[in-house]
Structures are given as C-alpha cells and as structure tokens.
C-alpha cells in the first residue's frame, strides 16, 4: 500500500508528528537538532494567543507570515549571525553563484525544521534568485525567533491542525505558485500531491531530506505515480558520513556528559551494533579511556570490530558487569527486560540507533519497578531490591534528545539541498525522468570541496598526464556513481522489512 | 584488444614477470608476501643444476614433481606447521566439510605464489576430496622448501621459459585432466585457453585472485569468449578490508623500522592519498606520535582526512620540511624530481600504493646524483651539495619488499579461494553463467565468521521477531549483494584509464 | 608577610570571596564542581528572608542549623543518594572501619563546598564515630537542598559577613569544642587561629584541601607559629593525577560542547602549556580529530610534546589561523591583546589553567570593542571590522565554569580527606610534629586501592620471594615517600614567585 | 659489602660479561643497541687471529690501537655518516662550543659500547678539545668497522681476559694519563680505582651511564672511598623518558614483528607491569588494535591503567586465553611454569622489563618439553600434547635482542654524556664534592633544547613580567632540582632489595 496514493485521511487521522518524527530522525539526525540546543534560547513567553488569530506586521510593513511573535526577529537575526560563522560553505556558494542567479524564477516552498541554519539556507536561495516560503516539518522544533525573520508559517508547539494549515498557507497563497519543493519527511509533498494535483504537475523538482520521505517517494515511483523528478539528498555520501560516523563520535560523549556527568575513563561499555554509528561511538569512548566491547550479528562488521581492538560479545555475557550500554543497531528489542533485570546497580542505558525501538522500554512499565525522574531526560528505574538502572531519554535517540549537532554538519546538509535545487531547476529536461535520483557524484564532491576551506585544506590537482593515466577527468568525479545501485540493493532488502510499517 | 584472444606470442615475447608481478601485486598484496620474510629461511645452496635436468624421488617414491631440492621437504613441513597455527579458519573449514568431501572428483590446477600458507590451502583442498597440481605464479617468490612438500613444479629464480614449462607440466600430464583452475594473475588461465582449448571447455570454474587476472577475465567476457564461470575473489570484502586498511596499518611501521630504524615519535610525515591504504598508514603513524598530513585529489576523501585530524596540503607546500613521504595513490609521478630536489637532508621516501610508478625514480638516475646502497632495499641518493634522500625499495611497494604479511591475512585469502572453488564445483548448472562473478555475500560473511574464532568473538543471533523486523534471514546475508554493481561502476572508469596498458 | 600572623583585618577588609576562590580553584578543581552542574538543580525560590533571621526546625525537632530552607532536605537526600552510587570507595571505607569507630570522640568542624558529595563524606565520618559541624568555604557554591540535610550553616549567595558568621557558628557553639579541622582554602583555620587561640591549641590535626590553604599553612609553619600537625591532601598523588590529567581530558570536551556546540573534528587548536592539564586537553582533542599544536617554555615538556605528536610552536606563529586557543600554563598574559587582535573571525579562546590571569581579558575592555553576551558564559567580543572572538567564561576556568567534575573524582578527594583525619586523630603523638605533612605514601596507595573496585580491577600480590627480591613489603608502599622532598623543592621556587601575592 | 673496595678477584673470577650486561642493560637500553641492528652489517670474516697478536697501521701511519681489522675503517666511516644524520643535537653542540674548546686539556678514557653513535660522541669530544681513548664495555657489542675509525681497543667476541686487557691499554699507555672517565657499567672505574689508585686520585670527574655503575658509585660513596666527583647521567629525565616510555612504545612493535610477523589487530595481550615501560607497550598495542589488559601490584599504577582504558587483571585469570604476554615489571618469576602450562597453543611470551628474570625460563628446561628453534631468537617450546608456546629471546630483553634503538635516542644519551663531561671538567672546585651528582636540571633542559631542532619545535620565551610572576629565571631551570631527593629515596628502597646481589 502506497501512502501517497492510498491515503485518504484527514488532518486528525494522521499519525502524530511525534511518532513520525522519530522515524525520520533516525537517519536524518541533522534535521532535528533544534530540540536540545536551540530550545533553550527560545522564549517561554506566556502569550497563549494562537498566531493564527493575531495580526502582526514586520519591519518592512508586510503581514504575509504567521509566527509566534514578530518582535523576536532581532533576536532571531543574532542567532542567524552566529550560525553563519560555521556555514562558510554556504556563504561561499552564495558568492560564487550570485552573479548568475541560477535560481532566478524559482519559487521554492520548503518544509523543514525552522532553525537558524535553515534561515541561512533560505537567505542563500534568495540571494541566488529564488523566492521562498517556508513552513515547519515538525510541531516541536521551530525556533520562534528565527521563524520571525522570514516569510512563512510555523511555531513551536503548534497543533496537528496548525501544522497542515501552515503547510497550506505556504502552498496556496494568492499570487504565488511554487515550482520547486524542498521537503523533510514528505508531508509537504504529500499535501501538494493530494490537494493541489495541478500545482504538483508543474513542479520542476522535489528535493527530499529524510529517509522516510525518500521511502515514500520510491513507493510513489514504484506505483508509477511520481510525475516529477525527485532528488534523494539523504543518501549523499558527505551527509551520511558526517551524520553517522563523525557526529556520533562527538555526540555520544556530549549526550552522556550532559545527562549523567559520568566519567568515561575506565568505564566498561558495551556498544550494540558496529555500523557507522557504532564505530563512531566506540572510537570516541575508547579514546577517552573506556573499556569498550561490541555486539554484532554480521560477521564482517564483527571482524572489523576485532581488528579495531574491541571484544565481540553477546550482550547477555557481559550485561551483569558493564557500566554503560549503548544501542546502535537499527533493530528492535536489542536490550530486553530479561537483560535489564540482570544489569548491575547504576548501569546507564541509552540509544543512539534507530527510533525508540532498540531498548524494550515498555517492558519496564510494570508495577514492581519504580520510575524516578532525576533530571531532564534521565530516569532512574528502581528494582524492588533497590537496584537502579539509569535510562536516558526514555530510550529515544540520545543525540537528538540530549546533545546538539554542530552547525558545520547542518551546513553540509543545507549546501547539498541548495545544489540539488539548482541542479533540478537548471538541468536540461532530458536529464531527469520522473524518478528518484541521487545527487550526481560530482556535485557530492563539490559540496565536500566547498567545506574544505573551513579546514584550510588544499586539494591537489591532477596533471593532464596523471588524469589520463587514471582515466579520470581532472575536475572529477573521482569515484563512480555506484550509489544508485547501492540504494537499489538496499531498498530491496528494506521492502521485505517490517521496520517501515504501512504508513497509511 | 583483448589479451586472451589476440595474444599470439611465444614464451620469449611475454612481458617479463617482474613487470607484471608488480602490477598484480599492487592490489593482491597477500599473494606476494614471500619476498621478504620467507626468503630469508630459504636455502642459498650453490647447486646450479636446473631442476628440469634433475631426477629426484620423494619419500613416497614418486618422481611426479619438479622442485629445487626434494630433501628440503622436512624443513618445508616445519614451515607449514608454523603457518597452520595462524590459519585456524582453514583448519576449521577442513573439519566441517571433511565428511561430505565437497571437492571429491575435483582436479584442481593452481598457479599462485608457493608458500607455506599455500601449502595449507592445498592440503585443505585435498582433505576435502580434490586432487591438486600446483605451479608458481611468480619466478621469484617460491619457497623452495615448501614446494618440495607437494605435487607440482616451480622454484625460486626460475627463468621465463621455466615458468611456462612448469605451468605446462601441471596442465598437460598423462592421466590428469584438470577441471578447476585457481589462478593468480591469469597466466595459467591464458595458457589453458590458448594451448588446450578442449581442456578449457571442460573446466567447471575459474577462481581468480588478482586484479590483473580479473581484468583479463572481464576482457574475455566482454569479447564473448569466456565459456566458463569465473569467480573474482580479489574483490571480496574481507580480503579488501584486510589487505588494504588493516595490513597497511601494520606494515607501514614494520617496513620503515626494518629498513631505517627510524623513530616515529615526532616525525613529520606526509601521506599522499587518503584511500584505505592511506587511512591505514595515517592511523598507525599518528598513533605512534608522528605529525601526519595528507594530500588528496578527491574532496570527499579530503574531508574525511580533515575530520580524522590530518592537515590536507599540497605536497609542494610541505616537501621542504617533512621527514618521511609515503605514496598511497595508485597514481603516477606523485613525487617528482622537482620535489625530490627540494626535500631536506635525510628525508625518507617510500611507496605503499600502486606498482612502482608513484615516485619518479627514473628522474633520479642522472649523472649529478650519486646512489649509495647503504642497506638492503635502502639507497641514499646524494645531491651535489651533500644532501641525502633515503629511497626505500627503489620506489617499489614497501610492504611487499621490506615487511611481511601476517599469516592471518593469507588465511582469509586462502579460505575465500577454497570456498569459491567449492561453490563453483557444486553449484547447480543454472546458477552461474559464462561470466565473472563476485563471491556471494553470504559466503563472504561465512569466511568472516570462520575467522572470528581466532579472536574468541561471539556473534549475536537474531530472534525470529528481529529478523522479521529487519527483513533479513537469520543466517544472513546481512548486507545486500551490491558489490557486483560496484565492480561494474569501477570497471567503467578503469577502461578509460591507461594504468592497465594493453597487455598484448 | 605571613597572613595568619600579621592579618589584623576585619570582615569587610577581606579580599572578596570571588577573587580568592579562583585562586584556590586553580588546583583544587574538585572542590568547586557545584558551580555548574549542581546549580541547575537548586531552587530559585523567591524567599528573600535571610536564613539568619528565620527559625526552622528539622525532622528530628532540632533547630541547631542555619540553612536556606529546611524543607528541601528530602530533595537533598535524593541528590545524596545519586552521589552515593559513584562513591563506593567511601562506602567501602565506612564498612571496613565501622566496627572500630576510629573517629570516636572526634569533633570535626569542616569548611568546604557543601555538595552532595560532601554530605557523603560527612555521613561517612559520622558513621566512623565523629561528630561534625559544617560550613561553606565559598559564598556561591552551596547546594541549599544538601545543606538542609545536616548540621551546619551556609547557603548559596550568602554575603561576606554571613560567610564569617557561619564559620563562627560552627566553631563557637555552646557544648561543642572542635578538636579536628577539615579546611578548604584556610579561612576556617585562620578564624580559629585568630579568634579562638585556646581552641586552636587543642586541635589534634588540620586537614587542608587547597593549594592556597596549604601555602598559608607553610607560611605559618615557617614563621614557627603552627602549633598543630597539618596534612596537605592537595598534593596526594591520586588527587593530582585525577584532577589534572584525567579530569581535564574529559572536561575540556564537555566545557567546549556545552558552551559552543563546536565540532572537534578537523579543528585547529593550540594548547598553551604541556603540563598535566595540557597533556589531558591535547590527548582528548587529538583523539576526536582536532589538529593540535602546543606552546611551551620548558624544553623537556616541549620534547615530550614532540614525541606525543604535537607541533611545538609560538602562539604568535599560529594565532592567525587557529580555531581554538586553550591556556593551561599557570602563567599570566599568555594570550595578549596583540594576539587577540590577530585572531581570525570566530576563534574560540578559553582557559583551563590557573586562575583568570592567563588571558589578558582586561585588555579587551576598551571602547572600540563591543561585547555581546550570546549565551551563559559565552561572550562575542566584536572588533570594529566585525571580527568576533568567542571568549568563554570571561577567561576564568572553563571546567569550573562550564562543565562538571565526575563524582568519582570527588570520591577520591573525600576518601583522602577521611583517611587524613583518621591518621591525624589516631597517630601516636610522636609521629607528627607541629608541621605540614603529606599523606604517607601507603595511605595514598590505600585510597587508590579502595577505588579499584569501581573498575573491577584485581591487584596482583607479591609472593614472599618477589617481595624480598624487590626489597618491598608485600602490602606496600610500592613507591618511595619522596613527595615531601618534591614539595620542598617546589615551594622553594614558589616563594620567589609573585603568583601568590601577599594575602594581607 | 662494597664491591669497589672489597673486590680482590682476578680477571677470570669476574662474573661473565653476559650476566652483567643484562643487568646494566635493563635500564641503559640505549647503550646496547648494537646487538641487533648493527650486528648484521659487521663482517663475519674468518680471520681467527687475535687482534692482540696482529700488527696493523692506520691511514695516518699510527699503530696505537687494537681492533679487529683496520681496513674496515672506510666502511665504519660510512656508518658514522649515517648516524650523524640523526644526531644533529650533538653536531649543534659541536658548533656552539667549538670556539671555546671547553675540553681543551681533557684526557678522556671511555668504556662504552662501541658503535657508530659512540664514534659521533668521541669526535664531538675531540672537536671540543679533548683527547680520547676508548674501549668496549661489552664483549659482544662492538661494531668492528667503527672501532677501526678511532684510537682505542676492543672487538666483537673478545674474551673476558681481552676485555680487561683492552681497558688496561686505554688507561696505562706511555705518555698518556687520563683525567676524565666516561663509564658504562663501572668496570673501567673499578679498574682504575684498584690498579692505578694514583691515577684515580687525579681524575677530575667520572660520568657514569648505567644503573649498575651508578649503584657501585653510591656504594663507594657510602663507604667514604669515592675521592672524585661523579655524575649519574642514567637518571637524567630526558634519557629516562625516552629510553622507557617512548622507545618501548616503538620497540615492542618492532621486536614482535621481526620475530613472529604477528598481526597486532585483535590480539589479546596482557602486559605485566604498568610503569613507564608498560605504559609504552600498552599505548602502542592498543593503538594498533590489540585488546590489552594489564597486571599490577601497585594500586596507584593500577588506577592509572583503569583510567587509560585497560582492564586490570591477575595473570592467572587470563592466562588461558591471551595471545601475547609481555613482562615489564622489574620483578622475577612474573610468569611461572604453572602459568606456562595453562597457556593456549601459540601463545607468544616475551620480556621488555628487567634482565632475564621475569619469565621463569629455567622451569621449562625439563625433559617432557621439547625446544625447537624456529628462527633466530624464536623458540617453540612444545608440550607433550603438542601445544606450542612461542618464547622470544629466551626471556631476555626483547628490544635489546630483537629490535633496534633509534639513533635519536642515542643522541640524547651522548649529548648528556658530553655535557656532563664539560660540566665536571670546568666547574669551580667548590661546586662538586666527592659524591655522586645528578646532572643539574638546567643542563638536562639544555640537552632537551638541543634536540628540539630535529622536530622544528619553537620554544616560547618568558617575558620579564611573566618570569617574575612565576618566580623563574627566564632561561630556566623551569623545574626544581628535586631529582637528587628522588634518587636518595629510591636508593633507600633498593638497598633492601636482593635484585642487586653482592657483586663481589
């Protein structure tokens, strides 16, 4: 059952945003950063009036927006300026492409988390010639002060109904017909597809950020109902590598410290799953003096773990002795109640993997166990004999809930999105059919190259002779475009899986 | 021009083995370990009589072999016993499959480096039911004492003519018609294809180890002349990962120490190329206190280097100051004469990458520079002002020439070869066409799993519920078979390249 | 001029607590953890009545205390329980010594930071037989809810006058005459010495925690006016090693993340000073992918830095290019205005070393620079051309201000304090003269051994034969008592220094 | 019993050099490098004539020397030139002090290992004005080709009688009366003290390299019979740090690879002892992917091990499972026969610690065990059931026997020796009494500073204001001279030990 096609539901029947968020979040980590860090800088004013009922005017005299409090725009501007400092690639893109205005005529409607980093993206798109309207892909994540700085609709804590109303405001406005979509989760695409089929047909391209949204696009494509070329930027290599390996390497430390102040040195840690996320967690903890072992189901990853210096064990073999348990498998019930029963007093349990399925949290919601919330995002679950297990973020993603994502990583995502929009908007018609595409390898490499300046890194250029010897173009791409194949192969496995339950 | 098809040359017209060896070696590192370590344990007896002119009898009274000195068999046996200690996966395979004799009836002719580890492979094949005849794929690499322990032909230092004669001895013997080929470099396959087309047609499968041999098979396949299924084991993931990342991580240290006794701590090192080989070299040297920077042409690899903590520079920017330069690019003339001129006194230059092309050694063969051989594999090249550049292995592969490959890695290769032979010999006819295949992902995983015992690693098994959730079979494969696609994409680029010059 | 002796000042003339705190804090990091972490869990109730003016009754019906709000005792109890989980060494000491009650008869007056960890110490002392009264050594650091759980006086935000009043309350109470002092900073000792000379003479021992307090004791001793044996626990080896190397290794990461969310990977960092603190910072940042270089004045430390893989540079050589500057020198004006002028936009500057002297913050308080407080503890200092330098904690200690100290480290400090009290209280009179002592090596080792259980570490025991061979007692000490000499040598240098300005 | 005083033995009664060597070697690692590396470059000519019976003339027409073969001088010169490349500190010292000739008039007799690095030292001393005569401190370590390049006596493989004869030749020659001694082991000092008491009295200073020699000097001093100032350079901090931590970090890898070609990745290793040597071994192996645990007797070192990420275990707990066992304790019988019996097949056992006492090798010399020498320095000890334990260097020091010491480390030693000679020769009479001294801290720092150029390291200089603030002289010393105290404390413990058995 293909959601885009079959879904006939009304607003109130949609799955709650919370549930859907965590699904998308598991891969598209960068798109949800705002939960932890930004939240603290946003106002907690007591104004309970719905923005839909307010009349506000911005500094240019316009009323074409719907935000919590337009007066916060100045504060929002400051947050944007801070973000700009770590997004030099995007600024550099602005400067390089500013003259040609490659997005002149583009009318982009965007539906992503509304954060300072997103604002830098929007302002980049505008400086390249585009007009933009923006709405929030998540009801909890909007930085209200940033939302106050640009045209669009959305606020932190909006209702489900508000959510769809805001999307609608950005699509259906007099004198405005979008011709490009930038989406994170597929809700905007869904809305246009269902409610405005005529607008949908005239869209020149969709850029989709999240694994959920990509999945929904593939379903549509498989059903022969995707009439627009779409670009899957979730699977671009720079994003994958940064979001998983490198960011997790840093955020596992940050998340544990902010919640528990635990000392890493000497701690016995078991990391479940040795994929990219697990590799990042293991590397960081080992580097800080923890004694780390891993669990794996795949012998090849297990063998890599061995060579990297980690004992490969079954969780049940070590569960009695370890100080910290971190799940990074993408699987469900990796930590079971039976294992929770056997943990030692003070054991910390948390999840860096997929959604909130990895730890069987539900199994601890039983009468004999006492839950004590000791800090924000930290529960002590207390056994009858007094043993305490320290559960973080109720088993949801630790780095989403309890740490931040560096602006630099968000810059990679935003730059990739901008390039994908430029590519789809400017490509000759013959280049992209009505299908889902990966970003061409060369543009992936271009995103990377724009970010090298941050590190003062100097690329070597091939001589003519060397390029000929290697059979490469001097300007790249330097690696083959095999990721499309990769995706196909991966998708084939996922369609057999129940981890993407029928969304309708 | 496809070599297998067009080549009409006679023995003497073949490219010299030396040239070809280094080509194949660049990827199939494991197959050439014998150069350094084993060499020292081999006899240096003065017997100049050609083995072809000798009559020797082994302990079982047979004369069906042609080796340097049959009396060394006992010494060879001891070397084999040492090797067995680190090849427990192969022994384990022996035990598991011994009862079924999956190779009963197989007549395998092999052409690989003849080393103690190869002998363990041969004896494994025999214990699984096969008959074997073996010959050397390289005129310099045979461990004579090991060759004395089994049926076949080859000796260290044989001539080109001897080389092809030995191959012929193993293919064309009365009462013996091979039905399986295990090759390393493609020379045996070529010989059978050209000289014994009738034998070739009856072959049930070819297993090829080297990148050169695989390339030649693809050429044959593309020309529609491959009438036998072939298995490319060079690209199996366990082999790639171990040969490149992990082995280079260890062998860069070993190679530098054995040649120069250099202290790593505090040394300024530039590693050219940040692929798997470069990553291994960088990790090891950084871990031992060197200050490492890298050069790259590919912005994605460069960005990885940045995140891993290495400065990305152009060689020319740092060449005046660094203590050690290591090439790992697969490219040519990465270190030029102009750069060599600018190096400081005592700079060490060596190659861990491809063939012997990376350092422009030829450019230093000029009258104004004096070459002084100070140790085996170590030359001081002396400039007119007295400056010395320390060149290792004359720019050939450092780890081939100056360090050893752990038996454990060779065990992975040998186990993969054995499984590929079993698979091709036993597969239903419909499974493999007349094409080049990668080892099925599941068998790749099986090779890995056989090696986990060495590390006392315990795999976690999926529950039924988890397998269903992930859409996986509980016994694997756990990753998709996308490598075939990968190979195709890679090949496409390589065909445009001049690094595989026309072999005919 | 010796402060204890000459000081005639009244309350109001004392240096402000703030100024003094930072001095003591620079070494005794553990004693001030409460600033950052604990602060957030303490009430921010609006009750403005001074505790001195309130009448409160605790759950046992007593009024013998003076705290902010006795009703918070239950909340305080929970914080103590959390702390107990990471202080198993202290609990273990309780159990081992409980039977003998080695502190029976001891009347201990304590003046330290009042935190949950301190409460665990107090309760340990009580369970070993002591009576205790406690007061705060710092006007800002008290966890009010913890203060509510025990007998004593002090609250967060008390005035200077309150500070001395609270001390006086703990010393001079009807029916209570202290015979042991546990001090952190020397203020309590000073008070007793000056105001109650008769009490002072009957004290059986002083245990001093901070470098400032130790310095003041040595001054007294040098002047021949110390009539009580004192124990310097600041310089015990477990404390030094943990407070400096290991804690800084973790807190540099924590402090930077909590304030700036900076990504460590690829960042260019300069660490000024390669002592234990610098070594910890460098190790952590290198491990997370930063490119780290160091500055040093001492060639031996510089050579260690080289061998550990860090470039040794002058700050002025790299100041234009680096992303982060961290001072760990113990020196003053290590970062000057001239260097601040040359930093690049977005450079982060912070201090992990001594006091608040290392960065010349005062030099930036000039009209042409704009200060913008962007977050708590984070200032953007903006140059006329728009360049921003990001200054953390206004140049005060980053880990004091912006990160937390693990309870495990505080456990080491508290255990050492408890053992020092036991030793001084029980030692035969002849053992300690009226002088300042280091904890005997054997007790230092005992503190370490009590903490090994946390790591499930198993010590090896010497056989009789081995002990004889090594000339050691089987139960230790395993290292010589040379630290006394060390201290003397160090002190000699410090007396020539102006970093301990005349306190009077 | 003080050896220098009581010893009445004749030549033949001395302990064999082999035994004594290993004792001195355990700390003075650098002085014995020649065993492994240099050995291979030395001639193995068959000339059996004793050098004492030959008449040879050098290129300057002199016969005042006694070496194996004067014709090798040219080869020796080349080895010296190679060494010079890594000894830039010594060359720099030459240049700085050449003008003043601070050793003018010095007649130095030296007794150390005769290697290329020693030759660079000798030539440095000569260029500073000294006359030198040199002899070997070890009967096996002389590089004959280097010995041929300077005035002195000694050859590889000389007898005990030759040994003392060579010493005598250097002390007692017509027209030559030494006034300075540079010794390694104390044999030369002993000889002069006993045989030429009148010469001894006129000596202006003794510089001693080894722990054994230093111990003997302290004995003499304690007995009141040392009539000459002596300098203990063994305990200078640069030498200690480099010889133990940093060198072992590199040589453990080198030694294991050269002997066994073992792959480090994934290996389970136990390191016995976590002092500086153990720390170096652990760091290197962990960095290369081994799973390392440690054993310790001292709880403080154990706690450091915990924080550094190593499990602390008893050997007996893990001995059944580990792949490699490395002893670094300084103790005896750390690995017992009972434990050897329990090791698994293929376990590698080696010693990086003290002498040859750590592994109870003698216990394996029993009839039921078979010893098989499989390579140089590698024995398989075979149990009746076929189990093999791989013993390296028969339990002697692995890095002495099977790896090399970088020239850079020897440069530190040699520079320290040179400075000590200069200091003793030039110091005003009042500065040094008839006692054993450590090198003044400032000179230790000067040695370090001379070596910084190798790493292009730039020291920061204190401003006047900063120096005053810290109470330091701008030119150092930067650390106190507390090592003298340290040594006294350490010595106290050692005198109770049996590890320095009565030498007489």
UniProtKB/TrEMBL annotation, chains A, B, C, D:
Cofactor annotation remark: Binds 1 NAD(+) per subunit.
Biased segments, Basic and acidic residues type: 1-11
Low complexity bias: start-end ranges: 24-43
GO biological process, one term: one-carbon metabolic process
Cofactor(s) listed: NAD(+)
Domain S-adenosyl-L-homocysteine hydrolase NAD binding: 244-405
Official protein name in the record: S-adenosylhomocysteine hydrolase-like protein 1
Species name: Gadus morhua
């Amino acid at each position: 059952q293909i959601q885009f096609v079959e879904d006939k539901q009304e607003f109130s029947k949609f799955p709650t945003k919370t549930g859907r968020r965590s699904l998308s979040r598991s891969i598209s980590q960068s798109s949800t950063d705002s939960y932890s860090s930004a939240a603290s800088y946003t106002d907690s004013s007591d104004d309970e009036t719905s923005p839909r009922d307010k009349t506000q005017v911005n500094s240019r005299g316009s009323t074409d927006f719907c935000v919590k409090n337009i007066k916060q725009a100045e504060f929002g501007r400051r947050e944007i300026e801070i973000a700009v400092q770590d997004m030099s690639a995007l600024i550099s893109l602005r400067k390089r492409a500013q003259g040609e205005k490659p997005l002149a005529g583009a009318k982009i409607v965007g539906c992503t988390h509304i954060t300072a980093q997103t604002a830098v993206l929007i302002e980049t798109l505008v400086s390249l010639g585009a007009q933009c309207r923006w709405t929030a892909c998540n009801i909890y994540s909007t930085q209200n002060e940033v939302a106050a700085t640009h045209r669009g609709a959305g606020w932190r804590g909006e209702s489900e109904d508000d959510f769809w109303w805001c999307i609608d405001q950005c699509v259906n406005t007099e004198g405005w017909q979008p011709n490009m979509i930038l989406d994170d989760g597929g809700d905007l695409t869904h809305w246009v597809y269902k409610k405005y089929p005529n607008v949908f047909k005239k869209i020149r391209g969709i850029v989709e950020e999240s694994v959920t949204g990509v999945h929904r696009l593939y379903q549509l494509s498989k059903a022969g109902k995707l009439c627009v070329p779409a670009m899957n930027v979730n699977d671009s290599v720079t994003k994958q590598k940064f979001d998983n390996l490198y960011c997790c390497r840093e955020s596992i430390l940050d998340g544990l410290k902010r919640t528990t102040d635990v000392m890493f040195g000497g701690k016995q840690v078991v990391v479940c799953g040795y994929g990219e996320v697990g590799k990042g967690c293991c590397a960081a903890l080992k580097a800080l003096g923890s004694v780390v072992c891993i669990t794996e189901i795949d012998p090849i990853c297990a063998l890599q773990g061995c060579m990297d210096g980690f004992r490969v064990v079954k969780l049940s073999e070590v569960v009695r002795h370890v100080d910290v348990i971190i799940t990074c498998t993408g699987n469900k019930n990796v930590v079971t109640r039976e294992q929770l029963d056997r943990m030692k007093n003070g054991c910390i349990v948390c999840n860096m993997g997929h959604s909130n399925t990895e730890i069987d949290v539900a199994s601890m919601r039983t009468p004999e166990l006492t839950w004590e919330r000791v800090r924000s995002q930290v529960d002590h679950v207390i056994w009858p004999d007094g043993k305490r297990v320290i559960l973080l973020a109720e088993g949801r993603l630790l780095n989403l809930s309890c740490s931040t994502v560096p602006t630099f990583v968000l810059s990679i995502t935003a730059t990739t999105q901008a390039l994908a929009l430029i590519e789809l908007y400017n490509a000759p018609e013959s280049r992209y059919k009505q299908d889902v595409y990966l970003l061409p390898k060369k543009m992936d490499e271009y995103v990377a190259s724009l970010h090298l300046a941050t590190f003062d890194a100097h690329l070597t250029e091939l001589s003519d002779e060397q390029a000929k010897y290697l059979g490469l173009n001097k300007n790249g791409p330097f690696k083959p475009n095999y990721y499309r194949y990769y995706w196909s192969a991966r998708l084939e496995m996922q369609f057999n899986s129940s981890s993407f339950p029928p969304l309708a």
